[in-house]
Design goal:
- 18% of the residues lie in helices and 38% in strands.
- The chain is α+β, with helices and mostly antiparallel strands.
- The protein is elongated.
- It starts with a strand and ends with a helix.
- Among the domains are: 33-318, Methylamine Dehydrogenase, Chain H, CATH 2.130.10; 637-742, Immunoglobulins (Immunoglobulin-like); 743-845; 847-982, Heat Shock Protein 90.
- The strands form 17 sheets. A 5-stranded antiparallel beta sheet has the order 1-38-37-36-35, with no helix packed on it. Strands 60-66-65-62-63 form a 5-stranded mixed beta sheet, with no helix packed on it.
- A hairpin with a 5-residue loop joins strand 55 (605-607) and strand 56 (613-617).
Amino acid sequence: MPRTLSFFRPAALALLLLAATAALAQQKIIPDFSWRVWTQRDGLPSNEITSLGQSHDGYLYIGTPAGLVRFDGKNFTPSLPLERGPTALAKAPANDDLLIAPRSGGIARLTGNELIPQNLPPALAQTPVESVFRENERAYWIGFQGGIALRVEGNTHLVFDTTHGLSPDDPIQFARDGAGRVWLAGGTFLARYENGAILRVPIGSGKERLRIASSRTDGPWIVADEHLTKFKDDAVTHIDKVNTSTGAHFLQALLEDSTGTLWLGTRSRGLRRWTPDGETVRLIQVPEDISALLEDTHGNIWAGTNGSGLLRVSPGTIATFNRANGLLENHSLAVCEDPDGRIWFANRDGGVSALTPQNRATIVARPREWENFSALSVAPAKGGRVWASTPYGIHFITGAGIKHTINDERLTGENAPRVLFATRDGDLWFALPRGAIGHLRNNAVKLFTHADGLSPSRVGTFAEDAHGRLWTGSEDGSLHRLDGEKFLPVPASALAIAGAIQSIHFDRAGTAWIGTSRGGIVRLDAQGARALSTRDGLLSDNITQIVSDDTGDLWLGSPTGISRLDIREIDDRLAGRIDRLQPSPIGLDDGLDEATCLSTHQPAVWKTSAGILLFTTRQGVVAIDPAKVRAARTSLRTEIHSLASDGLQLDSSRTPRLPPRPRLVSIRYSALCLATPGRVQVRHRLTGFDDNWTEADTGSLAEYPRLPPGKYTFEVSARIAGLPGSESRSTLAFTVAAAWWQTLWFYLAATALVVAAIIFAVRRWSHRRLHNKLLRLERDSALEQERARIAKNIHDDLGAGLTRISLLTQSAQKNEGEAQLDKIYRTVSDLTQSMDEIVWAVNPKNDDLESVANYIVEFAQSYLSDAGLRCRVLIPETLPARVITAQFRHHLFLTCKESLNNIVKHARATDVVIELDVRGDDLTLTITDNGIGLLTTTETPSRRNGLKNMRSRMESIGGSLALSAAEPRGTLVTLTARLSHASITP
């Protein structure tokens, strides 16, 4: 049975935590400001910044010793290679162009990418400029080296110098008061400009070093040595006393922002802010040597430094709790909020800690007998208490420390729970490392195992639905729900290949969101389980933490960082209305360098009663205020700056026409967003060339090699992730001219030439073919005439002679040589028949299929009738009119004749069927008898030679011979040939 051990805790700790409870409701977890720094590693040409300015179109211009650069939030673009960089920047009157003071002297107006010199008195044209200040829409001031101030209004110049009291050794400072009047200061000198003159204003003893800044109300801000003052009602009013290190001697920049807060940039103590309620706060972890200050149109404060790059200060949206807040380790394994609103950390080997209203960690003391205090997890308990898991068991902790411990051996050492979960009714569930889970109620522990329906794999996360049912997710990807005393599997096909279940979260609509190790997130509701992964736009497929904020948006933690998903976008993606999700990452824009979110211990993510989201990461517990993230002032504007062909810049104000065959077309563009550049998603495409959009991570240059002639439109589109309606798009149309061989008239002429050549070639080939055909017909005609002459001569001359011999032998048979004469007669008869066959084969009148069929039929009927066999012939009524060669007729007939001869000699048949069939190009002649059939064992050599000769004849005309048994008896001889081999080519 479990045992309960009690420990006494110091009363001082209890009183401290109890006293802090009343202040928790007012606790400000998220700081007022966050900051980000850009250096040369980010593309800044120099870490030394001399001046800052913002143009009317929103770009930040930065003066450095390497020149002037334009910044759009992501990319630093060299604007003008000024010698040693500008010393000062200010907005020009009337049109808000930038006034630029090159270090070499003079003043110029920056209009677009063009630097226009401004007229100055000849005596001051080469004098180095130290400051530039805009008075109003008509006039501006220039401070020159040597104590000279120049007021410029149109073509009117007013010069003030040391004769008016200005110090020759100190740079001139300018400021504007609430009434729009200009003030000048230098060293210990202070004056106000009125009606064409400067009036000295006495202050203090007249020996204090001064720094001044413009103010929206009353007079200007004045720092006199260590005193912060302001002119009110024509008198100096003391406001506050600042540290010596923040006094006028150490101040290098002074700025009042749009909220009335005063920013003080020092040369060795960094950046400080003074609020109207009198609080002076130093921003720690920012560069120390501040050289210039600027507030942009969104209220962000920009600071230039001497050697540390560019600093931006923005309203705070996040906080990170680690060693800087008093925790013993940066990495806390689990986090939760108790019912009284206190935040608790399982700080690994740093033990259990609670957060005070001052955002400092109060560490729970460990018992003396413990060797260490390794906190594995924490979970809220009733009455402002928490449960904590350590290798010594599960502990009940109050404001006074550890009250008692569930010292069950099954829950200690390597079996100590890493996952705790408190249900709404106050019960505690926990997961053991080896697959079982436990339930703690009234200090009694009950374990559930595989026998109770659970997966044998380790449970990694718990969740409770709206009906109070407990859900578990396991490392093998199985999902279970408690039903009574048994766990039932929850089928979800989308989880089959998604890996381990690392997080389960139920939103206010009752939908379950499941984070997996390799399948992204799975949405489980009444419509079933549907997965979303990197293919749908997620930043990672390994989701370790899921939580929803007060608006219903999902926040995801992964090893690659933290991101927000608009719940409406998720619905649109699942419904197929959009192609991809656009998650909004939390990163450098919010002051977060890195966040590695893990899930080995739970709870790894928590939403406080105030709506703050807490994520455990290796770098510390990250607290995010979703409301402040959404409220961050930001805007986006795309712009196409230039078009170049092979390095030659073209005028893009009109539709440019590029020369033919450009080797490389370059287009520079930007997506201006100074507030949240890390959330800007940019893509571009060239209509007429690109099939799809190209995602552009950080680049601002699109290049296209060897564009063919035609009309093109370059499009750049950008949007801020997580901000509906923020899309901005710019287009640029241009034309690539065609070379003379790429023009339409050339194509038409070339086409006509090719067609003419084809016609000529076809006509020539046709004439040659016709000529060859005529020659072949002439040869064939002559050959046919010769064949007819030979047939006629054979028939008339040789036939007549053979007939005469036959008649003579018949008349002489009664003589003594009757036997020999009879033999001669038969030989002559055979020769006569052979001669008739030759004459038939040679005679061109018989070169058709009909003649072949008739001749074979006549011969077969005569031959078989003389042999006493019945003959039946099956021939189609009409045969194709095909002209065939004499060789084909001759070999086909002789093969047929040999087959009939074999039947008469060997088959012992009484009936013979001859069938001729023509199908398409195939001729088939079958001869069937009802004789004794095939007797291969008794074949004579002569018969084998006969079959060989028959096959040879058929093969010579491209045909074949086949022998098979006939039904019910006899032999079937099949002769096949292709008429295409027999036809005479016309």
